[in-house]
From TrEMBL:
Encoding gene, per UniProt annotation: wecB
Class of the enzyme per the UniProt entry, highest EC level: isomerase
Superkingdom classification of source: Bacteria
The keyword Iron-sulfur is assigned to this record: no
Keywords from the named record: Isomerase
Protein name, UniProt field: UDP-N-acetylglucosamine 2-epimerase (non-hydrolyzing)
Length: 371
């Protein structure tokens, strides 16, 4: 019997780990433990409840105005002392590029425990954008024993960096989670919960919370959203579930004052995927949504200067607009006004997977860990 630890801290990590936890838990040769650091406490708990994930370790590390230095040091110490020294693990799974991923990988490496990195090989090739995620994932690559890449392009990134062993292209587990989640959504209840939204209009869903968009970039994004709201005041509703980070929340409520801009509470995962499905298109700086939306046939305008998910841009499912006010307005207008343009993007094939990534990961780990 091999003992595996899944360790994560944010909602996106939990979503992408959920189908893996489900499959490994159903496999009799493995004992599964789940540990969370709770970088995103409330939003993380929503996903755990939705996917019915029981946690064995809850470090609950976040405190107000915590620095990256302090968070990283705390995570390494707490993961080691409160989890890794409590049980003997054969493998630790980490996902993506958060501070939890780097700290967990380093702590596991110090204990000589093998590390499996889900969503390996993503690169923007700019160490400061996104910050600190690009550094986190690059360093995690150096520490990991197994590299599960969502795309062939991600694999090529690793090969160019000199990684030669245990690289597997599986697709992204976020698609697995999306397909699982859609089946669990209670549409009737959600329509009642969001009865103030006029779904007869075209819905533009907005998510914006990344560190690089704080300050002036966020103000430029808000200026674009207000302009779009004014231009299409009779035909469009903009829905923005506002992230609780004070750098975002206060500015959003100050700058986004229009009747057809609805500032919503942070959405649960079930609410988010349902809202994505109801939308016309999505404006986002999120990585996960860039991967999910194409499976629902939704065009994406990516509000980042660079993206490590270049496959979507190449496949035509996403358009990079950054925090450029005019570019956001122009690209949104094109999607709203030009049906042919919209359909060409909506019909593009999702380059991030077919919903079977988790099965491929389980197969690889069985081959390596089981006698």
């Amino acid at each position: 019997m091999k003992k595996i630890l899944f360790l994560f801290g944010t909602r996106p990590e939990a979503i992408k780990m959920a189908p893996l936890i489900r499959l490994f838990s159903q496999t009799s040769q493995f004992t599964v433990r789940v540990g969370i650091t709770a970088q995103h406490r409330e939003m993380l708990d929503q996903v755990l409840d939705f996917f019915e994930i029981t946690t064995d370790y809850d470090l609950n590390v976040m405190v107000p105005n915590q620095t990256l230095h302090g968070l990283t040091a705390t995570l390494i110490a707490r993961i080691t002392e409160d989890i890794l020294l409590k049980e003997k693990f054969d493998l630790v799974f980490v996902q993506g590029d958060t501070t939890t991923v780097l700290a967990a990988s380093l702590a596991a490496f110090y204990q000589k425990i093998q590390i499996a990195h889900i969503e390996a090989g993503l690169r923007s090739h700019d160490m400061h954008s996104p910050f600190p995620e690009e550094m986190n994932r690059a360093l995690t690559t150096k520490l990991a024993s197994f590299h599960f890449c969502p795309t062939e392009h991600a694999k090529q990134n690793l090969l160019q960096e000199g990684v030669t062993k245990n690289i597997y292209v599986t697709g992204n587990t976020v698609i697995d989670a999306l397909l699982l989640g859609i089946k669990k959504v209670d549409t009737t209840a959600l329509l009642k919960d969001f009865s103030t939204i006029d779904f007869s209009k075209k819905i533009i869903l907005v998510t914006c919370h990344r560190r690089e968009n704080f300050g002036a970039p966020f103000a430029a994004i808000c200026k674009a959203l207000v302009a779009i709201a004014d231009k299409y005041k009779d035909s469009v509703e903009i829905l923005y579930p506002v992230h609780p980070n004070p750098n975002v929340k206060a500015a959003a409520h100050e700058l986004l004052v229009r009747d057809n801009i609805k500032l919503l509470k942070p959405l649960g995962y079930n609410e988010l995927i349902w809202m994505m499905d109801k939308s016309s298109f999505i404006l986002t700086d999120s990585g996960g949504i860039q991967e999910e939306a194409p499976s629902l046939g939704k065009p994406i305008l990516v509000m980042r200067e660079v993206t490590e998910r270049t496959e979507g841009v190449a496949a035509g499912t996403a358009i990079l607009v950054g925090a450029d006010t005019e570019k956001i307005i122009n690209e949104a207008s094109a999607l709203l006004d030009d049906a042919n343009h919209y359909n060409s993007i909506a019909a593009a094939t999702n380059p991030y997977g077919d919903g079977k990534a988790s099965e491929k990961v389980v197969k690889v780990i069985k081959q390596h860990l089981l006698p």
